[in-house]
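REQUEST ID: PR-0412
SUBMITTED BY: lab tech R.K.
PRIORITY: routine
TASK: structure prediction, single protein chain
INPUT:
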Amino acid sequence: MGRPKIHDEALRGRLIDRAAALVFDDGVDALNLRRLATEAGTSTSAVYSLFGNKAGLLEGLYLEAARRFGARLAEVEETADAVDDIVRLGIAYRDYALREPHLYAIMFDRHSAEFGDDARGEAAATIGPLVDAVRRAQERGALRKVTPELVALSCWGVAHGLVSLELAGSVPPGLDVAAGYENALRAMVDGWRESIVHSPQ
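STATUS: complete
OUTPUT:
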């Protein structure tokens, strides 16, 4: 009978989650591998074995964040109503951010530009389902035929802005992101509808 694998995916996941929490609380610069290993109930050798070094750990964090985010968006099934699909993708965006706030924050950390092509490519691909939904809505005459990436980016921006305010606790008193989130998404999508008549500038 072979020896059990000590540095397995379960440990990797535990280290990822704990490291994300540490970075979220104290910033990337405060991430210490010895502290991480202690808090995860393992050794620094396990961290090095799984990630190589601190840079590898940070890239692993970013890649895992993008993969989980992409997996959540992939759960939104395509329907005959592409406009509604856009809104449901926005709802999934917020759901991921609230369920995985530490990993969500990693995706937008200033250090993300330093990561490799695989990690950045994985993150860039997460907007793909939204672009596809916009394109389908345009093909069915529901949305104006402008660059679909532009429409997707505007919807993404509304989702990101509201979610970031909510996570930061920066929502003005008396306002509730949860109560108005879906309506805000629908208002943004409605602004791109083919039937909207735009006044001359």
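NOTES: The two ends are 76 Å apart (CA to CA).
REVIEWED BY: pending
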